[in-house]
Amino acid sequence: MNLPFADIRLWLVRGSGLVRRGVASLRTRGWRHSWERVKLQFIRPPAPMHPPLIDADRSAFAPFAVPCAEVPEASIVVPVHGQWPHTLACLRAIAAHPPQAPFELIVVDDASPDDTLARLSQVGGLRVVARPVNGGFIAACNDGAAAATGRMLVFLNNDTVPQPGWLDALLSTFRHHPDTGMAGAQLLYPDGRLQEAGGVVFSDGSAWNYGRFGTPDDPRYAYVRDADYLSGAAITIPRSLFQQIGGFDARYAPAYYEDTDLAFAVRAAGLRVRYQPAARVVHDEGATAGTDVAQGPKAAQTRNQGVFARHRAAELAAQPAPGTLPAPATLHRDRRQVLIVDATTPRPDRDSASLRLVNLMRILRDEGAHVVFLPADLAHAGRYTAELQQLGIEVWYAPYAARLPAWLKEHGPRFDVAMVSRHYVMRELLPLLRTHAAGARLVFDSVDLHYVRETRTAQLAGDAALARSAARTRVLELDMLARSDVTTVVSPVEAAALAGEAPGARVELLSNVHEVAGAGLPFAQRSDLVFVGGFRHPPNADAVRWFCNEVFGSVRARLPGVKLHCIGVDPPPDIQALARQEGVLVHGHVPDLEPYMGGCRIAIAPLRVGAGVKGKINLSMAHGQPVVATSLAIEGMHLRDGVDVLLADSAEDFAAAILRLYGDEELWMKLSANGHANIARHFSAEAARAAVRRIFFEDGAGTG
């Protein structure tokens, strides 16, 4: 295979960088951790496979029951007109895999011509609304809504087989995106192909099922997204909003375009219409109304397009012209589109840089941008990728993004801003971005200044080879700074350093972002010490070794029962061996830090090398947990000794500071309150918002 020049160049740059960083890693991390990093680069996990679809249960009927909550959160309304086998399969699927949310199931029998009504009486737990005269889909749904008692209305076609978790996923959309007015499911054909990932409406009122016949895992269809409309086969809306709007509009009776018009009415009420890919519903399209728009019930679809076009003429004027091919660039045409690239998908429960990046994407989303994330390794990171998609981030991965140059050639022109984290990733992509995203502002996100951290590590170790490697990193980082439009740093100390190193460059402070959490347990109910930090990061391993070997013995001599909880991913063998020391507990990765943030009395940050802003300190202070730290650990964090934090750099002083704070409730309370205030003032989303607006939203994109 003949690779294009852009691919060859990327692999050459990546290969040389990996060799150089690999040598440095061997000297600082050892071969085991270095090998783990190599595997992360080259062993790409496969994209996730969904569980097999639940098939329609068409076995012979026997009486059964569905759950029915006395106080339902959701009212599921299923309109039916004959077609008992479909209705039975739908009800059986709900009974076999009931949602976690409390619900009631209302079946509206719209004067069925078969024995549906009699059969429904043999299904326990149902609420049945019997219409004496057939009125069509709109009348049946409105009658079901009038009978509902749940806070949320869920309209579900009877020719569907809801998959496990569908309703809970729909409802989660409203919790995670509070401005949602209506949410719709990912509709699938029985063979697993995509039927609809939300709908697109054109200026003449015609519509398009986005993603039709596609693959559900395709990144274009796998994230929570605004949609022009959602098929009424599986949608959720607050009951109060449905009543406020007036229900499904009877001008479209008996059916078709009522769901499209409802979406436009929701937006007119100031709320948003969102497609939820995690709510998977198999829909036997056309089973009850056919597919021929020239005759039968579907003929109303053609007639009602004109009714809809006249009714919504003002809104339709802003829609794309008929024949426009829907794609991410056009779907988000009215929003600022921002590309974020990092070496791998962020894992916010594992390291501070990941938490910062995810919270930055949240801010960009809340400010109105459409965010696209591209991991340079092109790997799907399981739940971490899925969590970004649930935030509304468009995340790409292999095999749908097979090669970075080809992907950037296709998608680059749509971006207003492209931010690349880490100098070695920017070095790979900068020429491609200048070529294919020529109108975009290029932001080099340093994460922290790597050369500063590497220089300090070399000095502490007295390692000349590491010093030479740090000097090379400095050259590379400053080169990326000079060739980018904006450089972001996390610390004012680093911003000041770059003012001297590159006085003409635009440098912006964009630090860690944390939410101020609750205060946790009171002083008297807390005990022990905690250290949090991933052990793939050499400064963390050095800090724990030094503390356990030089400090903790003195603390234990005065506080015999105190324990040190070491928390962080991938502790190497020598860190694990520290657990043999009395009182040292090495936990490794802990999915939920809350018990340690809210229950340990003191956090320690005994760092002797490093750069940037220390997320471990931010994290503890956000939870009201006082910190004892070295001077280097609090660099650039606006902290005052004895007011916000206790500082100590020698082993003797560090032990003394811990003993003092451990027994002084008044001092502990002061540091706790001031730490909370520091986070709100310097490291909250509000604190970052002004910088985000300057960097990503001000006019005048890239310099090209």
List keywords for this structure.
17% strand, alpha/beta, globular, 25 helices, ten-stranded mixed β-sheet, 704 residues, 41% helix
Annotate the secondary structure layout.
Blueprint: H1 5-29, H2 31-42, E1 64-65, E2 74-80, H3 84-96, E3 103-110, H4 116-120, E4 123-124, E5 126-131, H5 137-147, E6 152-156, E7 160-162, H6 166-176, E8 180-188, E9 194-196, E10 199-201, E11 207-209, E12 225-226, E13 234-238, H7 239-245, H8 258-268, E14 272-283, H9 299-311, H10 313-316, H11 328-331, E15 337-342, H12 352-366, E16 370-375, H13 383-390, E17 394-395, H14 404-411, E18 417-421, H15 423-436, E19 441-445, H16 450-461, H17 464-483, E20 486-489, H18 492-501, E21 507-509, E22 529-532, H19 538-558, E23 564-567, H20 573-576, E24 584-588, H21 594-599, E25 602-605, H22 615-622, E26 627-629, E27 646-647, H23 651-663, H24 665-682, H25 685-697
Parallel strand pairs: 1-4, 2-3, 2-6, 3-5, 8-14, 15-16, 15-18, 16-17, 18-19, 19-20, 20-21, 22-23, 22-25, 23-24, 25-26, 26-27
Antiparallel strand pairs: 6-13, 7-14, 8-9, 8-13, 10-11, 12-14
Helix pairs in contact: 1-2, 1-15, 12-25, 14-15, 15-17, 16-17, 19-23, 22-24
Instruction: Give the overall form.
Output: globular
Q: Spans with pLDDT under 50 lasting ≥5 residues? A: none
Number of helices: 25
* Mean pLDDT, all residues: 91
Strand percent estimate: 15-25%
Describe the main β-sheet briefly.
10 strands, mixed
Structural class: alpha/beta
Fraction in helix: 40-55%
Oligomer: single chain
Q: What would you report as the Rg, rounded to the nearest angstrom?
A: 29 Å
Please tally the β strands and state the result.
27
Task: Kindly report how far apart the N and C termini lie.
Answer: 32 Å
